[in-house]
Write a structure and sequence with these properties.
Layout: H1 2-19, E1 64-71, E2 76-77, H2 98-107, H3 121-124, E3 133-135, E4 137-143, E5 149-157, H4 166-176, E6 186-190, H5 194-197, H6 201-206, E7 218-222, H7 225-228
Pfam families: KDZ
InterPro entries: KDZ
Organism: Suillus luteus UH-Slu-Lm8-n1
């Protein structure tokens, strides 16, 4: 079974290399190159040719729209022999590159900010301790049009949902807004804790050497999907 799983991983990697034109060439593979993004979202140079600094009309048609969320059940235990773990596609598909992401987490300040919203469970409840877990969940960004995950914009969580670690989602959002977005000047983000998350986003980005956002990019925070259905975790922006 162990050998079968190893061969299956290698076969998947070879198929992705072939599908993305890297099968027979020593092609330089950039982050996210082995994954596909939503064909309906505006991507200058791919499905639309306008890359001017001014947003064309209608502006909503050429805006990037993202939903941000996490899965706090996708837990991962520490491996018994970490040196035996070999990554075949580190940062080349949907998950971010391991070394740079961990370097960002090491330098980022883990400031806990309590929500000002009434009874917001995802922000206010006490943090749980999970000593045996390397990752307590997974989060990232997807397009709001068809729910397609953005390549190189999925991150692991090191703590549970009880306290939102903004440093994790900061990295995911910055990477998502870099993917085929040259010329995009507006982005709408939908997040269930956007009322708190978006307040100091630019400050956190400017203070980190691993985070980057285009200064000309306007980020419009939107309400989370939970608010639409009257969920108790809803918040206003």
């Amino acid at each position: 079974y162990r050998e079968l799983m190893r061969v299956a991983r290698q076969w998947r990697q070879l198929k992705l290399l072939k599908w993305n034109g890297c099968g027979y060439e020593s092609k330089d593979r950039k982050p996210g190159d082995l994954a596909l993004f939503c064909p309906a979202c505006p991507q200058p140079g791919i499905n639309e040719t306008n890359s001017k600094s001014q947003l064309p009309n209608p502006s909503w048609l050429y805006s990037r729209s993202l939903v941000m969320d996490g899965n706090f059940k996708a837990e991962h235990l520490y491996t018994a022999n970490p040196t035996d773990e070999v990554s075949l596609m580190d940062g080349r598909a949907f998950m971010v590159g391991d070394s740079t992401y961990k370097a960002h987490l090491t330098l980022a300040k883990d400031a806990v900010q309590r929500s000002e919203c009434n009874n917001h469970r995802a922000v206010n409840q006490a943090n749980a301790t999970r000593h045996r877990l390397e990752a307590t969940g997974i989060g990232g960004c997807a397009c709001t049009r068809h729910g397609c995950f953005v390549p190189h914009a999925m991150v692991d969580f090191q703590k549970g949902e009880r306290y939102v670690r903004q440093m994790n989602m900061d990295y995911a959002l910055c990477e998502a807004l870099k993917h085929n977005a040259s010329g995009i000047r507006r982005a709408l983000t939908s997040y269930d804790v956007n009322c708190q998350y978006h307040k100091y986003l630019r400050d956190r980005v400017s203070s980190s050497p691993f985070l980057e956002l285009d200064q000309e990019l306007e980020i419009v925070p939107g309400i989370g999907l939970w608010h639409v259905h009257g969920h108790q975790d809803s918040c206003y922006v």
